[in-house]
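Input chain follows. Return structure tokens only.
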Amino acid sequence: MSAAPIVIPPELLPSDGRFGSGPSKVRTESVRALADVAGTYMGTSHRREGVRSVVARIREGMATLFGLPDGYEVLLGNGGSTAFWDAAAFGLVERQSTHMVIGEFSSKFAAVTRGAPHLDDPIVIETAPGLPPQMAGDAGNDVYAYPQNETSTGISVPLHRPASGNALAVVDATSAAGGIRVDPTAFDVYYFAPQKCFACDAGLWLACCSPAAVERIRRIAASGRWQPPSLDLRIALENSRLDQTYNTPALATLFLLADQVDWIAEHGGLEWAAARSDRSAHIVYEWADAHEYASPFVADPAYRSHVTATIDFDDRIDAQQISAVLRTNGVVDTEPYRKLGRNQLRIALFPAIEPDDVSTLTRAIDYVIERL
């Protein structure tokens, strides 16, 4: 006879049960705002003012949000960060790149450059998942790539440049941008997708580029290197300056992104958003540190992500069961990154997620553990 399903009391259920690390929770207010303009916005040309004005809001909002210095430009294109890795292999890496690898997504960019027939094999500095990363002291090649936040493991890396060398600092901020503080002078390219801290749908990449990065894009394009037009960063640059993309974008994604950028700006900008994620991180890590059965996967507090928390569980507790029970009660996407293969939960702490909901979630988990 099977056991009765565990029903979590209403007072222990978050007001919103979405804790996925991407796609992330989309604020209901944003969806309503999209519905309000759908009749004149959805299904219109992306090369006309109605959509281009939304792209302009995004580009101007990002420049303000990140405090970009004069000369930095915001580029955007279709396909997400995965597509940007391909574009970077064509349009940013001249000969050879160095990659800090600390998890699944940082390893994927390294694999792209390793497979590119026109590039030398990359230099890879790899650290086991969850451990403090090794940072390059010297990058004698032309690109130094690393993630600000490794989504698969919940480890964060301080923004930095190599101590020597002239490599462009190319930072994967896919799950960090909009939720973690940033010093724009520490990067040349800060690229990300909008389905995490920016609380909208996927299918788009954005890249904040320094003058040095813009010059690199132009130089490679002028060299005659063949690039697929959809991945050509010079074409992306030219179209972005016109507040459009080379090919048709998802209009809903653009609108939801613009709305989220405005929402963050209205509440105090990046400092407000980062402080909100800080509060959620404090809640979940304090709970895990004090727990009999749980502990943060990233042992060193200095490297624990404030936007993606990974929590390990004692072998006496089956984290997969916890996730399954939470899901049947409407609390979804707390499962760990599948390839990491650990007995853990992964909990998004993006700015759109209410810190009070994170607190309620910890109590719901305790309730489930008591009954397993």
